[in-house]
Amino acid sequence: MKIIIAGAGEVGTHLAKMLSQEKLDIILMDPSEERLNFTNSSMEILPIVGNPTSIRDLEEAGIHKADLFVSVTPEETTNIAASILASKLGVRKTLARINNYEYLLPKNKELFEKMGINSMIYPEMLAAKEIVSAVKRPWTRQYWELFGGALILIGVKIRDNSRLVNKQLSELLNEQKLYHIVAIKRQNETIIPRGMDRVEAGDIVFFTTTREHVEDVRLLAGKPDPEVKKVIIMGGSRIAIRTCQYLPSNIRVKIIEPNKEKSHRIAEVVPGNVLIINGDGRDTELLMQEGIKDAQAFIALTENSSTNILACLAAKRAGVFKTIAKIENIDYIPLAESMDIGSVINKKLIAASYIYQFLLDADVSNVKCLTFANAEVAELVARPDSKITRKQVKDLNLPKDMTLGGLIRNGEPMMIKGDTHIQAYDHVVVFCLDTAMRKLEDYFN
Amino acid sequence: MLNVRFIIKMLGVMFILETLFMLLATAVSFGYKEDDFYPFLQSSALMFGTGILFTLIGVKANEHTAGRREGMLIVTLTWLFFSLFGMLPFYLSGYIDNVTDAYFETMSGFTTTGSSVLTDIEALPHGLLFWRSLTQWQGGLGIIVFTVALLPIIGGGAIQMFNAEMPGITHERFLPRITQVAKRLWGVYLLLTFILIGLLWVGPMDLFDAVNHALTCIATGGYSTKNTSIAYWNSAYIEYIVTLFMFIGATNVTLIYFCLNGKPKKLFKDEETRWYFWIIVVVTAATVLLVMSKGFVSGFEEAFRQSIFQVVTLISTCGFTTIDYIPWGAFFWLIALALMIICGCAGSTSGGLKMGRFVILVKNLLNEFKKQTHPNAILPVRMNEHAISRDVVHRVLAFAFVYAALIFVSCIVLTLDGMTFIDATGAVVSAIGNIGPGLGSLGPVGNYAEVPVVSKWFLAMLMMIGRLEIFTVLTILLPGFWKQ
């Protein structure tokens, strides 16, 4: 499968790197040679210096033979123009990054299809949705719905007060039907736990469970569930505005924005439950004055990753239950996780994994991957007569770096136990370290 | 931390692959029922055994942490070890009775240099002759490139190795995956080889000679099965065909691929190729005038044929001979020296500085002259209508300097070892550019047998340094490479 990615910015670069590891032919296009230099050293990516809106450059890249054209330059208009050109020049599918919610409305879908744009991505909106999901369940680090919500993946930081601490997983066996611990992140290492492994305080533990048992997982992890009534957002970015629009209207929101003109502009577009404060979010006195003590959530969304991290730490000190920081520097993410920042928002990771899913849907393959913590989550369908359907799970001798998170049989979600026998056409959630990705095929096909 | 296991594993895999080539030569030897059969069998077994051992040691290697340094080390070690195993048939069969000569001969083969220590080539059995030619053919496009084409090596390691071995100024790929690129390059290479075998066989050569000469001609290596090289046949047809394919051998393989793939414009519009072509035309014209006016050969056709053959054999770094150009005088020696330094196109099997670098050097120099009168002018170096980044220009300048410096230092070493100035200069330029014949007593009809032992080892190393484009090997020799 040949994929052309236009725009070697943060999203484009990350996406290209991710896809090049999947045996796909990746061509990365950018007008700036400097931004493409990284590909020469070690990446299986073909760099092409060129303008995505130039017909000659697109043809040079072999657009007529490509399966997918992804335009993720910072300019919305460039992306739209490039996608239209690419589609008319013969590419099978196009995807453009946009900054306008209007374009995503279902009634406009046909219009864009006619122009040759098959799909659009709005990274700020995706980021806002993720923030809202984090605010709704402030006790989780990660909250993902798999198979359209039938199974839930939750990441929780475990502290001393949890019943899980220092217990071997085999001791928890009797409760396994309610949930399954699929991965443990300890410092920078991700462990796929076996029966002998213990949960330690400070671990981030990933559970799969069904919707009814989310509450049990919370109690098990020893987490309170405060209702979020008041939110403070630092930095009036586009993500902040979108977040305000998605948050339920019974939550009171304060946005702190240092730029006066910008504050006025924001005030015009946000709903009535949002109050704009013109000031600096790093000013502790201002925060106290605006009632950070009664806020349950603090969201730092300025352009500066380090400011966001520090502001979140300060808010945590002030007693805010949930902090969310936007961190654009990927290398800082593990650092932030170890520093007690509740959730981390990274626009390019969100955008790249969304495009990744879109792409795998388009492909015949039924693997769907979400990248979290050096591990992959794959939703697979067991083929008739595949290795995985032959024996009970405990007799399968699954590799150490892989575990089964749960399954859907005839639309019913189920947890998997040792004596579960997987049947053909079961949808199974598999967790594995990135080393085991290739072994999956053996078991399911 | 160096990923030693990965290095060992890759070496092991390559030994196993190389055994296949050696078995090919063993089969030839078996077919002719000559006395080199058992030495070949022993060498193959030793190489295969080492390959298996290395692969087993490195079986648990982590491929993901292999980077630049591992790539450079693997490439360099591969070339060193291949020459070591490759010399065994010569040594064990007794046709070359000392390690120095055997190693020199093999390294000269793999690096497509073509300098020989053998005084009587025709005395060699067919198996050894074929093995000699085969080393050149593999070395031409590259051992690693071949491995990458065959094996699913993935990730950073493969690209590093590929870049370290493939000659060129920048390493532009025309397809996203390195294995795809390597496969196509080898496809083109094989196709050209088969065409040439056919063309030579149609002429006065028998099949064995046609195969051998095709292998060494397309690789621009220059090993022959005859003492008098191409002159043995005394055939205008063979000489023109060989001239043409030496010319093709020193053209960018990627561009030939495009040419065969329906994009001939890329080749014919390419600036480097055009310079390469016109330099050959101009120098040939000058040589024709020289040999005609001095009366070295009689008749225009022969003068033209001999001139163009000498020019192309030198610039393409092939090193076949039809005539001894040493009596043509110092004027032609200097022309020869210039051709031996500039050499063919980047991305070809040719050696030397490479035409592309030469073009950049010339253009950059002209820009500097323009800047004397227009100090504030912004003057990028352009190739094929694209401005070349300053980084690349700087790298080319550094390369030219290190090339010149290395020639100078090596000449000092060789003259210290007792060689004459002319011999030393010719040998050094010839070794670093992978050409073959040098000047003085090491000219086209000369021979490296009398070169002192230390100089032979030094020249063998120089051939490898030149083949891997200097930076790869010299970087490893610097202490900074080994520091964390």
Structure description:
The complex is a heterodimer of chains A (445) and B (484). Chain A has 445 residues and is α/β, with parallel strands linked by helices. Helices cover 30% and strands 26% of the residues of chain A. Chain A has 15 helices and 22 strands. In chain A, the strands form 4 sheets. In chain A, strands 3-2-1-4-5-6 form a 6-stranded parallel sheet, with helices on both faces. In chain A, α7 crosses α9 (238-246). The longest helix of chain A is centred in the last third of the chain and has 16 residues, at 347-362. Chain A is globular and about 60 Å long. Chain B has 484 residues and is mainly alpha-helical. The model of chain B has no long low-confidence stretch (mean pLDDT 89). At the A-B interface, β2 and α3 of A face α8 of B.
Quick summary of this structure?
Chain A is α/β, with parallel strands linked by helices and 445 residues long. Chain A has 15 helices and 22 strands.
Q: Which structural traits does this protein have?
A:
heterodimer; A: alpha/beta; six-stranded parallel beta sheet; 22 strands; 26% strand; B: 484 residues; mainly alpha; two-stranded antiparallel ribbon; 22 helices; 1% strand
Strand line-up of the largest beta sheet of chain B? 1-2
Strand adjacency order, main sheet of chain A: 3-2-1-4-5-6
Q: Gyration radius of chain B, to the nearest Å?
A: 22 Å
Query: Tally of extended strands of chain B?
Result: 2
* Structural shape of chain A: globular
Percent of residues of chain B in helical segments? Answer: 55-70%
Poorly predicted regions of chain A are: 362-369
**What is the assembly state of the chains in this entry?**
heterodimer
Q: Work out the helix count of chain B.
A: 22
Distance between the termini of chain B: 7 Å
Shape of chain B: globular
Give the rounded overall mean pLDDT of chain A. Answer: 83
Please describe the biggest sheet of chain B, giving its number of strands, its sense, and whether it closes into a barrel. 2 strands, antiparallel
The structural class of chain B is: mainly alpha
Could you tell me the mean pLDDT of chain B? 89
Gyration radius of chain A, rounded: 23 Å
Number of strands of chain A: 22
> Can you write the helix and strand succession of chain B as a string?
HHHHHHHHHHHHHHHHHEEHHHHH
Low-confidence stretches of chain B: none
